């Protein structure tokens, strides 16, 4: 798939997720088969201020390209300046966040608030497209309220403003990330769009991916939470879409190995203590379905070193602390 001038190995994109899709995670997702990864949303104002923490969020590794940097804000000139900084920092694509429903963001006039302010939204898109030479994409929701679908209208507006691609998250802002996506609403956006539309929402495995594509006819898929703790999901989906065959899901050992690798990458990127502490956010996903996962999680929340992390992971498989999937789960605390 191509986005403007950028060629992707497939049509599967890792969703931007604040606090999750940091550099270690993006590198794992690329290794796991994502055709494109995306930074978490970055404040345009903070970027323009050259805030250190923000610049660190935007630091891109050589092995994660192609990568898209997502920015949010409400001022066209600041968004354009931030886009330029992102492109100078190595972004292959700049993505604009028009979908975030978080109160603080909406109150500042950014994120999903902009889908009801067409003039400002258009001004932002035109300012950013006019400023950078890399392709510019946007990510939207189908609306702010339930049963609303503004996506067919926005995709046309976006095309007229020079936007290369639109990702449509098939949920309204009121639903945050809950419930099933409205695939008919996404399909309506695909039918109306003069350019490629990427579908997002609720894709957790090969079958939900295929169903999303079949029902919407979108050009590609963006996967969020389904890939946390399972970055190789992209490879399995891609294999299934091209061959119709399912690859084996990762074993418990493979998941634990991936968690260890993730921890080491986080330690390299942030320093050991901070890296291990930040990993607490994604650990529950790696441990999902394991017997006693909540007890392991509690232990993880105390640890601050890689050595301590390995020691906790060593216990997995030991009886009676952990049992195999076919074991007598009733005796143990289960998730
Ligand atoms: C913890 C978390 C953080 C998120 N942060 C962002 C973000 O920074 N930018 C954005 O456009 N969407 C963000 N999203 C929304 C996701 O990109 C995606 O649209 C949503 O999770 C639906 O996809 P899924 O059902 O595959 O998870 C976030 C979602 C979650 C769960």
Q: What does the secondary structure layout of this molecule look like, with pairings?
A:
Layout lengths: L1 E2 L2 E2 L4 E3 L8 H9 L5 E2 L3 E2 H5 L3 H6 L9 E6 L3 H13 L4 E6 L4 H5 L10 H14 L4 E8 L7 H10 L4 E8 L10 H10 L3 E5 L5 H11 L3 E4 L9 H11 L8 H19 L1 H7 L4 H5 L5 H8 L5 H9 L21
Parallel strand pairs: 3-11, 4-6, 5-6, 6-7, 7-8, 8-9, 9-10, 10-11
Antiparallel strand pairs: 1-2
Helix pairs in contact: 1-11, 4-6, 7-8, 9-10, 11-12, 11-15
The site of flavin mononucleotide has 23 residues, from loops.
Short description:
Helices cover 42% and strands 14% of the residues. The chain is of the alpha/beta class.
What attributes characterize this protein structure?
335 residues, 2 domains, binds flavin mononucleotide, alpha/beta, Non-ribosomal Peptide Synthetase Peptidyl Carrier Protein, Chain A, nine-stranded parallel β-sheet, single chain, TIM Barrel
Number of helices: 15
Overall geometry: globular
How big is the Rg?
Answer: 20 Å
Low-confidence stretches: 319-335
CATH architecture of the largest domain: Alpha-Beta Barrel
Summarize the helix and strand pattern as letters: EEEHEEHHEHEHHEHEHEHEHHHHHH
Could you say how many structural domains there are in total? 2
> What's the main sheet like?
9 strands, parallel
Spatial gap, N to C terminus: 39 Å
